Known about the structure:
By secondary structure, the protein is mainly alpha-helical. Helices cover 54% and strands 0% of the residues. It has helices spanning 9-18, 34-55, 59-70, 72-75, 80-86, 92-110, 114-137, 163-177, 182-206, 211-227, 232-253, 273-278, 338-341. Helix 8 (163-177) packs parallel to helix 10. The longest helix has 25 residues, at 182-206. It is elongated, with a radius of gyration of 36 Å. Mean pLDDT is 77; it is low at 258-283, 292-308, 336-341 and 343-347.
Amino acid sequence: MRTERNLTRLDRVFARLDREPERPAHIDVPRMSRHRAVLFAATLAFYLAIVWAVAITSWLVRFDWQVMFFRPYQQWPEIHAFLDYYVVLGQRGPTAVMIAAWLGWRSWRQHTLRPLLTLGASLLLLNLTVGAAKLGMGRLGPHYAITIGSNEMGLGGDIFPSGHTANAVVTWGILAYLASTPRARRWLSALSAVTSLGVGLTTVYLGTHWLSDVLLGWAAGLLILLALPWCEPLIARSEAGIFALRDLWRTRRGLAPVPAPAPVPLPSPVMSPRAAAVDGELPARGTVPSRPARSPVHLAPGPHTARSERTPVTPAGSRRPTHPERPPHPERPARASAATARPLTGG
Length: 347
């Protein structure tokens, strides 16, 4: 009677994760080092400086208006169609889906939920910080500006800082943050910097953001990436809590732990007729002999003994008599060639 339970897809996923419950040793978790703390403080100072420069209607606001009156989309209309598609790399929905798919595959391969949880923490910080700043400052965009030369703040807008730019910095920068090797981290950092730079300048080209919006968006996204090491303990506890809930759910359902799949046995090599005769049986004519199944070497019950220490055994079916003073299997002399061993006879 078959009593095995059919595994669901969720059971197979957790069985895959249970193969290696520990985080792989070669993955380096970033920490808040002194260098990173200095960068965080410098970026925060730059963030506050941009906000102050826009709030007091400084030269930065006047430069925003000059770029707006320049109208880059009218100066270079031939690249307008391409940049309409390129700016999608900064939209939260499409980029979050693409990055989540890649990090989900990374979680599957590395047997850990840390990549997905890190992405979730970064997007949560992005929504809270950038969203609060947008609503708090309420700046209008270039297309909806009312008074020429003013900072357009406190009028109910939601473009300061640039959400496209901050989202591009975070979503593409998270790949560099989660890189497994220093070389991959350097290349992904350069790629995310170029992508976020292009997205920010594209929004200025299209006239949807002031240049100061883009500067503040870069700073906002970089602050989130630099602050992620502070979230690592919470991410680790969240991962442990998810697996604890999984175990509790299994216990309530009365399910046993899903065993890891057994390794696939290697195919046995084809035996020659002479080796089969030593084992005590001869294959039938026209059939391919095969070696009987044996236990793997690493599962042998006793220690391995040298060939000279083994007890000699006379093969089954042997016609050679056993001499009391001679071992059953003496060393055989080397065979002669076919020409000398079997002389040719005339037909």
